[in-house]
Amino acid sequence: MAGIKVDMEHVIVESQEMEKEEEEKEEVKPQKTKRVASLDIFRGLTVALMVLVDDAGGEWPMIGHAPWNGCNLADFVMPFFLFIVGMAIALALKRIPEKLVAIRKVILRTLKLLFWGLLLQGGYFHDLDKLKYGVDMNRIRLCGILQRIALAYLIVAIIEITTRQAQSKELPMGWFSIFKLYSWQWVIGACVLVVYLATLYGTYVPDWNFVVQNPDSVDFGKTLTVTCNVRGNLDPPCNAVGYIDRQMLGINHMYPHPAWKRSKSCTKNSPYEGPFKDDAPSWCWAPFEPEGILSSISAILSTVLGVHFGHVLIHMKFLQLQDHSSRLLHWIGMGIALLVLGIILHFTDAIPLNKQLYTFSYVCVTSGAAALVFSAFYILVQ
């Protein structure tokens, strides 16, 4: 969680500005447009959660990131933010009538997120004790939290803009009308899922080498080999997510302190950090990018689900029930369905919960949890 607080502060600012700017640009109406208080409270809770797990995760590792499979408290922070970004996209972009203006705003925000991501998390500042500041371009981290959010925001926002004709339509009667109205977004989401699963389970991962950069290792400076020669493996050393990042980013541009270093295979005090076992496998010393290319593609799904909840807020008013009941029934029902699906996939060993790989079961459980938490706040304040 190192550096997540600074990064996420920029996410919160960008998300809030995205809604506020468009509210200010609306034509004056008899009734002033109100902010969605439940969404603002959800943001605040996620920030508080981020601070808690960042500061206390080292002392209480059970609330920190899971070393590999599983889902601890810290593993809900990223998908919660992506869910919030998705809802903000639906609420903000509907107020911009010109597609080109909207696309320009989206591209500008994407570039800002990429810039801050590289500056804050990818810098690899060295020789701080000697007051020599700089960036080692041979070891700069190319991916990160803000870069992942930038990718998800760009793709989902462009999809939202290009399907703008749906915004002006009245929602017809029927429980699944909201899905039909934005059918193209669900088709694209399904394509993202198919590409991710096909790549994750279909990519052949050969043996690979790396140079140990940790001075605490007895093998510091040596080149170690990791034996794989498998396809469809989801273990730490031989999964397609890490293989694609090593091939496309380069192993020197990946995160050097992955959560797997606290796994039972590596450390004596798992899930706490500590000295490695004498017989720890070679990959324990290797880097791994938790916000890598393939896992970031899967993370788009969390934002798509957030956009859907924004669409429900916009369109679903009084279908069959009064007040806010129709929205809540849809949100809670979908949240429970996602949770159940993700839990079944995990406990049947079909697709394990894994934040590092951003597996489909992880998308389902975290998005379902986000849906229920947001619904609870909506009940309390709307």
Attribute tags:
single chain; mainly alpha; two-stranded antiparallel sheet; 53% helix; Heparan-alpha-glucosaminide N-acetyltransferase catalytic domain-containing protein; transmembrane; HGSNAT_cat
What's the structural blueprint in terms of helices and strands?
Blueprint lengths: L3 H22 L11 H20 L20 H17 L5 H23 L23 H18 L14 H5 L1 H20 L1 E2 L2 E4 L11 E4 L3 E2 L8 H9 L44 H23 L9 H23 L12 H22 L1
Helix pairs in contact: 1-2, 1-3, 1-4, 2-3, 2-11, 3-5, 3-9, 4-5, 5-9, 7-9, 9-11, 10-11
What level of helicity do the residues show? 40-55%
Mean pLDDT: 82
The shape, in one word, is globular
Task: List the total number of helices.
Answer: 11
Order of helices and strands: HHHHHHHEEEEHHHH
Strand order of the largest sheet: 1-4
Largest sheet: 2 strands, antiparallel
Please summarize what this structure is.
With 382 residues, the chain is mainly alpha-helical.
Question: Describe it for me?
Answer:
It comes from Solanum commersonii (Commerson's wild potato). InterPro entries: HGSNAT_cat. Residues 35-159 form the Heparan-alpha-glucosaminide N-acetyltransferase catalytic domain. The structure is a single chain. This protein has eleven helices and four strands, in the order H-H-H-H-H-H-H-E-E-E-E-H-H-H-H. The strands form two sheets. Strands 1-4 form a two-stranded antiparallel sheet. The protein is 53% helix and 3% strand.
